[in-house]
TrEMBL record:
Entry EC number(s): 2.7.4.8
Name of the protein this chain belongs to: Guanylate kinase
Keywords of this entry: ATP-binding, Kinase, Nucleotide-binding, Transferase
Domain Guanylate kinase-like, chain residue ranges per copy: 6-187
UniProt xrefs under CDD domains: GMPK
PROSITE patterns attached to this UniProt entry: GUANYLATE_KINASE_1 (PS00856), GUANYLATE_KINASE_2 (PS50052)
Transmembrane portions of the chain: none
Organism: Akkermansia massiliensis
Family statement drawn from the similarity comment of this UniProt entry: Belongs to the guanylate kinase family.
SUPFAM superfamilies for the chain: P-loop containing nucleoside triphosphate hydrolases (SSF52540)
Pfam families referenced in this protein's UniProt entry, alphabetically: Guanylate_kin
Single annotated GO MF: GMP kinase activity
Length: 198
């Protein structure tokens, strides 16, 4: 039997939903590869270029858009974010499962791709957190200013409206329960018959 294609799990949810942690942990546990996005936002303390993101200037980002390098790109919270096309397709072809931590606009763009292997590999999950719980989490992590937190809460309500577009919804509770559900979903998706090659 030939090596099956990898599955592409797109993970969205508001800032503070824990989606990055879920994706990173699954990657560390060898279940998948993390898709490293490009962004024009400044690195937060502790973030490393080429690990957390490829940090680009606005001009560098625009040049890559111009070259058609992105599978999807969007403006989120006033900064630009995008996923590099070549990296993802190579990994899926090699049978690697890929997790992509992207916003609802990016997910919509990937759903719209009808050519090649993407429609076969694609699956998505929305990490849902009730508003009050989300406010507590964003205030607790103390990485962002009050103004930024308010913006993120307003954006969260807008993002939640896109939940019906997703195949799966993970209602966030505690870290361990969330991770168990996430890892199980990834495992199931990687077993889809659609990923097998003749
Ligand atoms: P943060 O700045 O907190 O790391 O991410 C802000 C938002 O941008 C999150 O919702 C995250 O999922 C989203 N994001 C990160 N990378 C990408 C990307 O490559 N494309 C899109 N569309 N959104 C992204």
């Amino acid at each position: 039997m030939k090596q099956p294609l990898g599955t592409l799990l797109v993970v969205s949810g508001p800032s503070g939903s824990g989606k990055t942690t879920l994706c990173r942990r699954a990657t560390e546990n060898g279940l998948c590869v993390y898709s490293i996005s490009c962004t024009t936002r400044r690195p937060r303390s502790g973030e490393v270029d080429g690990v957390d993101y490829h940090f680009l200037t606005a001009a560098e980002f625009a040049a890559r858009v111009e070259r058609g390098d992105f599978l999807e790109y969007a403006e989120v919270h006033g900064n630009r974010y995008g996923t590099l096309k070549a990296d993802i397709l190579n990994l899926l072809e090699q049978g690697k499962n890929v997790v992509m931590d992207i916003d609802v606009q990016g997910a919509e763009q990937i759903r719209a791709c009808v050519d090649g292997i993407l429609p076969k590999c694609y699956t998505d999950v929305y990490i849902y957190v009730p508003q009050e719980e989300l406010r507590n989490r964003l205030c607790g992590r103390q990485t962002d200013e009050d103004e930024v937190i308010s913006l993120r809460l307003r954006n969260a309500a807008r993002e939640d409206a896109c939940l019906p577009r997703y195949q799966y919804c993970l209602v966030s509770s505690d870290r361990e329960t969330d991770y168990a559900a996430f890892a199980a979903l990834l495992k199931c998706q990687s077993m889809r018959v659609a990923l097998m090659r003749e």
